[in-house]
Amino acid sequence: MPVTELKFYQTGTFTIGNRLLGEEDRAGQSAANRANSLNCGHRACQGCGEALGARYAIDAAIRASKGQLVVANATGCLEVFSTPYPESSWQIAWMHSLFGNAAAVATGIAAAMKVKGRNDVRVLAQGGDGGTTDIGFACLSGMFERNDDVLYVCYDNEGYMNTGVQRSSATPPAARTATTPAMGVEPGNRFGQGKSIPLIAMAHQIPFVATASVANLRDLEDKIERATLMRGARYVHVHVPCPLGWGSEPSDTIKVARLAVETGLFPLFEAEFGALSGHTAIRRRVPVEDYLRLQKRFAHLFRPVVDVARIAHIQAIADHNIERFDLLN
Amino acid sequence: MQKPFATTLDPGSSLTNHTGTWRTERPVYVDRLPPCNNACAAGENIQGWLYDAEGGDYRRAWGTLVVENPMPAIMGRICYHPCESSCNRGQLDTAVNIHAVERFLGDEAIRQGWAFEAAPSNGEHVLIIGSGPSGLSAAYHLRRLGHRVTLCEAQPALGGMMRYAIPKYRLPRNILDAEIDRIVAMGVHIRLNTRIDDPVSEMKQSGCDAVYLAVGAQLAQRAYIPAGDAKRILDALSLLRAMEGDEPPRLGRRVLVYGGGNTALDAARTAKRLGATEAIVVYRRTREVMPAHDSEVREAEDEGVQFRWLSTIKKEEGTTFTVEKMKLDEKGFPQPTGELETIDADALVLALGQNVDLEFLKDIEGLGIEKGSVVVDSQMMTGSPGVFAGGDMVPSERSATTSIGHGKKAARHIDGWLRGKAWAPPARHPLASFDRLNTWYYSDAPKSVQPVLDEARRLSTFDEVSSGLDPSTALFEARRCLSCGNCFECDNCYGVCPDNAVIKLGAGSRFKFNYEYCKGCGLCAAECPCGAIEMIQEQA
Predict the structure, then answer these.
(1) All domains in chain B, ordered by first residue
(2) Which residues, other chains included, contact B111 with Cβ-Cβ below 8 Å and sequence gap of 6+?
(3) Chain B closest CA to A233's CA: distance in Å?
(4) Closest Cα in chain A, distance from residue B114 (Å)
(5) Which residues pair with B533 in a beta bridge?
(6) Contact residues, chain B, for A43 at CB < 8 Å
(7) To probe the interface with B, which of A15, A217, A262 has the most B CB atoms within 10 Å?
(8) What pLDDT digit, counting tens, does each position of A2-30 carry?
(9) B526·A255 Cβ contact <8 A
(10) Dihedral through CA B435, CA B438, CA B439, CA B441, nearest 10?
(11) Superfamily of domain A38-324
């Protein structure tokens, strides 16, 4: 076994760059010449997690594919804020699609590239949770089942945000949305069975499935870069807080994302061909209250009285994730 | 051909959409005052030299350090490091071992023979009286400012209390000599064995334009103790000074030390090393309120020094000392109880504090004295124009570090006075408090411990008790610094901006904001580990 010298670099790899580290050990986003695939002037809200997650992911895919990347974009926040006709913030080969068919459009692009013999071009489809877990789910499942050569990236902000914050099948239990108001006996979204697209993707036995968070850039970049270079259907699910829909402070976007990971509510893991192949351990475990309290969509859990039972229910979900994905080790 | 409007526009970039107009608050980069710098009585830029040391450039780090304090090897040993008590990392795990890194840099400078840059003499001539930490510091800074310096010392060697009161096991003399020699090598004119009785006429006679008084406080305070045989009673300063002579004083097997300050502990620990089987510190109050520093008390306890709290010494008869028990009243003052006991001892060392010898100042017109100290204004000048004073002579905390700070401050004011342009200290930045940090980003790393000399050797020799850090440990320790309130280019702001509104200017040049597009979300400020970004209201 090779002996590696243990070194300590003030912030280690927790920060995006670190002047004490070599260029190769810094995150791709620290580079002065990063692609900035999603450029300035886009109309996302202040502190938008999706805008951040999209730049992180697409920049990483561009790096991995050496610029040979075509992206199909599902309708949703991401498209509306980035590309209001005739302007666009995208500095990449980018293609508009409908709300529900981004996976199918990407499949078509991949087929066309194959016909043209362009093996070097990588194809990526991206969309929000509405376009992925609800409206585009049939196309997505088909893409998985056929093992088309596409990397699908879902930016999960847990609702239909640009149309006015309606519930999606990715909205967490108890969350208030326009369609699940905080009223009645059980205010907010009901405690359903949940719908985990990463686990559904795993059930298709595709080559690669991973979850990622804007709070852990290096983990996200690593997963996107590896996924970009693989062949076949791949899926990466990125957790992106939405200050507007979640009622959190714009400056707290990364903090909220970090707490989702540290509570266990958003587990970071990856799987190959249907089997779990890795997870990112929780560094400082915190109770779910810390996460819920920062968001007005959960305010009814704390006012006028603390809803002990439902908070315990959410904690149980987090605890189950921690156990299932072995997140403490 | 008639096209529908929706397809007539050429694609454009979103750069035409200046989202900066959305902003109600704007981020600005700030430099805040790290708590260590704020606490340092010598005014060191600790965060600054740790920053250099983090990169492994020890020469540069030492250079940054000595801009403020020319004696890091000494200070890294004897300073009670208030910087560490206030270090923000102390609230995270343990404070950065600042004094150990300072000492490492100081020792490295001695090993490598790093010298101070000689300054061209373009100024005036200043007389300094007293070569303790304050006088040496003033001499160094005045030389750097281009003035000629004559330094007078009554003793046969330079160093003041650092040589004649601080025991060798805390400050080895080769270290002391090396750092003093480096200052002298800047071209300071030295006059040893020279006691000045009239500073102002001496200043005029030697053609000087200003004088800095820095003789310290070296009259031992006495207590009235009825004694049959005063031979058994001596003061701590005489004991410690005698340690510099050829023949160590004889104290006997059982030694009492009366007092509760650091000097009392130095005396007790010295007595142990001179062969006393028992050294007992007698103090009229309790450990909690004793002025000695906790680290000193702990080291003394480790070496077997004993303590009698709440006790005063009433009288001496031969080898029998009568001790009265005290109790603290509600105000915390010790009150006699009338309960007496006796202790047998061979000697009593008095360590009851020190006073300033004011005798040589009596002829200086305008120089004010209050409560036994020399009165100075905010520029360290006494009531007599051109006569400055600092260190233990003026009201202060009376530590070597404070004295070094006084020397620097006085030098800058003397320079301003001589050049007819008063020196104005730069405005202090607001404090970088712990709540401004985002500690998530710092690696977990507890403090590295300095090796300590075996107790057996400590009890029999004057070898230095604690040793230095090796280079890799020093580097590790430097990198534990959180860089509170000062950008260390971690790229977080650049990375986390959802709007690409942070421009990276390259290594060493930090960043700037692109206010054309910054929406003012505040993510950069929230995710800055060290609190170097502030959100301020936009003006309407």
Answers:
(1) 18-31+487-537 (3.30.70.20), 36-114+452-478 (1.10.1060.10), 125-217+356-418 (3.50.50.60), 224-353 (3.50.50.60)
(2) none
(3) 28
(4) 25
(5) B29
(6) 14, 17, 19
(7) A15
(8) 444 445 678 888 999 988 888 888 999 99
(9) yes
(10) -170
(11) Thiamin diphosphate (ThDP)-binding fold, Pyr/PP domains (3.40.50.970)
